Amino acid sequence: MKRDLAKQKAQELLSKMTTEEKVAQMIQVTYTDGGREEALKWAKMGAGSFLHVLGDDARELQREAMNTRLGIPVIFGIDAIHGHGLNTKATIFPSQLACACSWDPEVAKVMGEVTAREVATDGLHWTFSPVLCLGRDPRWGRVNETFGEDPYLAGELSAAIIEGYQGEDLSDDEHILACAKHYLGYGEATGARDAYDTEVTERKIREVFLPPFKRAVDVGCATIMTAYGCIDGTPLTAHRRILHDILRDEMGFDGFVITDWDNTQSLMTQQHVSADIVDASIKAASAGNDMIMTTKGFYEGMLTALREGKVDISVVDECVLHILTIKYEMELFEKPEKKGEPGCFGKAEHLEAAKDAARKSVTLLRNNGMLPLGDGELKKIAVIGENADNVRAQYGDWTYFTHPMPDPTNSRPAFRPYVTLWEGVKEICDEKGIEAVYAKGCAVKPAEGVDESADLDEAVRVASEADVILYAVGDVIPQFGEFADRADLDLSGRQSELFYRLKATGKPICTVFIASKPLCLGDAAEKADAVITGFNGGMFAGQALAEAIFGKLNPQGKLPISFPRKTGQVPVYYNQLPGWHGGKYWDIPQTPLFAFGEGMGYSAFAYEGLSLDEELKLRVTVKNVGDTEGTETVQIYQRDVVSSLLTPVRRLIAFTKVTLGAGEAKEVEIQLKKDDFALVNAECETVVEPGDFILYAGGSSKEEDLISINIAF
Ligand code: NOJ
After folding, report:
1. Does residue 311 share a domain with residue 191?
2. Of 518, 544, 569, which one is at a domain's C-terminal end?
3. pLDDT for 398-439, tens place per residue?
4. Residue nearest atom 4 in ligand 1 by C-alpha distance
5. CA of 235 relative to ligand 1 center, distance in Å
6. Rounded Cα gap, residues 49 and 57, in angstroms
7. Helix (H) or strand (E) run with residue 393 in it
8. Does residue 103 have its Cβ closer than 6 Å to ligand 1?
């Protein structure tokens, strides 16, 4: 149903609703708080939505909702963040950060489509995804959930995944609602402290944090989630300028806004800007939050406020109208349950999509010629490290391991199919007749009081008898996620010590980084013969990494985020403002350990002939100068030479992928827009200032990987 008609129908229904029914419609109840009985009570009261409930439990709630006076169906939301991962049967994709290594919107779109189908098959309607926060400070626990540090790349991938989730028609049985979150600036919280104050100006918001949301709104994202934190002291939950004026009036958002978990209650209990729930409820609704996640106290709070004349019913009407409009547009009244495709969990096509995503996300960061491992004289391979065979670490956040339902014990077994690094390597070794041996060595996050010395000795012994060493390092679940920021990004436990001891064997060593986000790898990267990563690559991460290590796959990933050398060096994102006094720390090199856009394969690419014509068509010739076919991500950056205020040293404005055979060259064409050269001026206007610009093309954001021309407007 078209949105206009949906709005008309919503208006008609609204006129029949009592005040209590309206306020209940704004509430989203979690199944995990109070369980079935409590949830059924709220369904009878006419709650608008539930979250974290699956399959038959959801169907039961829907039947109750349909039995109420007006029979308004509920909408079910779930954190299907990289696959419908809270369901043990689902296909698990790479995390958003891992997926972003592919720089491939099609990968993100397919991930959205498959996830939508599996969520819909559970009878559910809505995923709280994608995350549009930027991962500019790796200390933040939720960097794994972002598409990386760059607003343009994040915007492109978000648009693609939203299209994958939502399809062309919200009523389609195999598509679900997307939710762009967390609006706004959550990832930029001071000190990378989860759910804290973000000290940014409105100009900075417009320059850096708003563009991905604008992109999401433009592709029709149906819902937006408000961030936990505050901007310069004003809670986002109470920020009408951001939630209403900018989002609706300016950007044209026409769906509904949901708070994050207990945001309304937090106005009172955490942020101390409301003395009681009545005031908190008024603030949340008046600012532009249409649906209230988990704060059930909003119901009484808002009814009291209305009774006492502290708020006008028109505030509630506007919120409910937004919710009902989407419900009508989804044709929820006719089809209260999404059908999906019965039995589609983990079907072959879905698993293939997860495998393809993992393969395209593998990123090779260093290689002195050790990789790919040849067949020749290799007789024995040592695979070392906990994360080489730890499926929980490989999956990362937001699966049944981290958010188990309905039983919150966190003790779930791992459900097949999945392939760890050790399993992937072993399989290829078996095929090739190479002996493979595994030793854990040390825990990523050691249990207190446990002496691991014997395990380290054993790993070194195993490694010294092998021809090459694959050493997996990284992080494990308690070290990241919500409430889990890190003050120290160095490799934890005895991982670095073990690296030195393995290195001392004199055997070639490849560091395999299986982690949620960049860490300070130090010598485990700098002194390794090769470094390869897939971050949290999902079900088939281990297989994809093994294929790349043995050259069955030519890695094509590029980093969507920079790696700091030291924790004290953050932030190291590439698009910084130009510094003065050298802009550097005297005790470390100025560059990041690995830069945004960096990533190599077994081919090499050369660029020449960059040009831009009057119609802003960019052309550049890319040549595969290696001896094997490979895929390159062509990255286009610009720099404003002189501007009215400081602009970043480089800004990504376009990218495309090209596959070339050995020795093959191709002229790549990219259509640019004038707006790609815009800045946000001191008056907060987006303008292109006349003058000179530098246009760059190349295979990473690093100066040495780029060719450039000067242009002028
Ligand atoms: C809190 C998280 O911040 C948000 O991302 C998530 O969608 C909600 N909880 C619901 O689980």
Report:
1. yes
2. 569
3. 999 999 876 656 677 899 999 999 999 999 999 999 999 999
4. 260
5. 17
6. 13
7. helix 391-395
8. no
